[in-house]
Specification:
By secondary structure, the chain is α+β, with helices and mostly antiparallel strands. The protein is 32% helix and 11% strand.
């Protein structure tokens, strides 16, 4: 077993997960980037929009590096991973999820709060007296993180 944390420099992947299009936004070392590519945590497309193989992605490519479902899953702690894995087939997450876990998933754009009409809301709607009013649902990125392969 290695003492090296996995994945390397996870803050880069967290930033990519929080980015609206999932792009790596910070400068990442070539070694770390190659590790991400080799492990399927990020990818890069060529000028025609086709995914480049990991060994060629740094040498060529047109688009930004984009986080994958596996990359999103790799940055989750155990409670966050359990929360997304507990979602039903429609993407509804059980209400028993602790709010710090739910809020972290929302910040990573893996989940969102929705009201009774299915409209996305910025928070769970808890006013401190009556409890949460909105349910947690997986976003498409969250669903991708549940099946990273």
């Amino acid at each position: 077993m290695s003492n090296k944390p996995y994945p390397p420099a996870p803050h880069h992947l967290r930033s990519a997960s929080a980015h609206p299009e999932g792009h790596l936004t910070a400068r990442v070392s070539r070694a770390t980037l190659q590790s991400y590519l080799d492990d399927g945590l990020v990818y890069r497309n060529d000028s025609d929009g086709y995914r480049l193989p990991p060994d060629a992605a740094q040498a060529e490519g047109a688009g930004p590096y984009v986080i994958t479902g596996a990359g999103r899953r790799a940055i989750l702690n155990d409670s966050q991973r359990a929360a997304i894995d507990s979602a039903d087939d429609r993407g509804s997450v059980p209400s028993k999820i602790a709010w710090p876990t739910a809020d972290a998933l929302v910040r990573l754009r893996l989940a969102e709060y929705r009201d009774a009409h299915g409209v996305a809301q910025p928070t769970d709607g808890d006013d401190g007296r009556t409890g949460p009013k909105h349910r947690l649902w997986l976003t498409p990125a969250g669903i991708a993180a549940t099946r990273p392969a």
